[in-house]
Amino acid sequence: MKKNVLMLGIFLILQVNVFAQLIHSHNDYEQKEPFFAAYNLGFDSIEADLYLKDGQLCVAHDEKDVSTERTLEKLYIEPLLAKIKQIGGYPYANKKSLHLLLDLKKNGRAIMEALETSLKPHKKQLTHVIISISGDMPPPSEFKHYDTMFFFDGRKNLTYSDSELNRLYIVSASFLDFGKYWPGQTAIPQDVADKISVFVKDMHSKNKKVRLWGTPNTILGYETLQSLGVDVLGTDDLPLLKNFISRSK
């Protein structure tokens, strides 16, 4: 009996960890204050797109906008490490972890090499920062070749071994994988909702969080994704999502 109660308790803890709602700053570097705009609102997750230029990890959405004046180090790592030092080991004063999603836009292997060189010296300080690699990431069979400080952003259409699955922090999919673009002004088509629900339940059965990209920045959009069990709600409108999630608690 005691064993059954213990196992139930462990299961519930895992469920809470997996299904906790996270708010995510999509393409955060396009905010007026990269890092700080999302951080000051207590966002759980921040996204930066990366290119490699002249040996520098540069943050930009399009290659034409790449500048060595806007680097991952300057915009994200330095201010994050400063906060961690100030607070005493955690990104946030309430000991909440921070998820940093790094989307490799091109030449992923070279960027991974540069990331390992840049971030491994800070591994201890970044203990409570979850770093996920997305975009032009290595195939699952190569996950094991990279430092365990790096997790990966899973894909809906890929199959993973148990060891590879353990290296996924989230599993992401485009909204367009389930149907046509939805602007979030009227109810989501039922067939699309059903497909998303099946995907979410499948990922939750594997204890994995779900993120969708290409979703609308509307209250109805957030409400709908939340009701479908999507764990990571992304936005370009940080105050709108923050206010929504605060009211829904």
What does this structure look like?
With about 250 residues, this protein is an alpha/beta fold. It contains 8 helices and 9 strands. Strands 1, 2, 3, 4, 5, 6, 7, 8 and 9 form a 9-stranded mixed sheet that branches. The longest helix is centred in the first third of the chain and has 18 residues, at about 1-20. The two termini are about 35 Å apart. The model is unreliable at about 1-20 (pLDDT under 50).
Shape: globular
Low-confidence stretches: 1-18
Tell me the structural class.
alpha/beta
Number of helices: 8
The radius of gyration is 18 Å
Count of β-strands:
9
Task: Give the SSE string.
Answer: HEHEEHEHEEHEHEHEH
Q: What is the makeup of the main sheet?
A: 9 strands, mixed
SSE map:
Blueprint: H1 2-19, E1 22-25, H2 36-39, E2 45-53, E3 56-59, H3 72-87, E4 98-104, H4 108-119, E5 129-135, E6 150-155, H5 162-165, E7 168-174, H6 190-205, E8 209-213, H7 219-227, E9 232-235, H8 238-248
Characteristic key phrases:
disordered N terminus; 21% strand; 9-stranded mixed sheet; 249 residues; globular; alpha/beta; single chain
Short description:
Helices cover 36% and strands 21% of the residues.
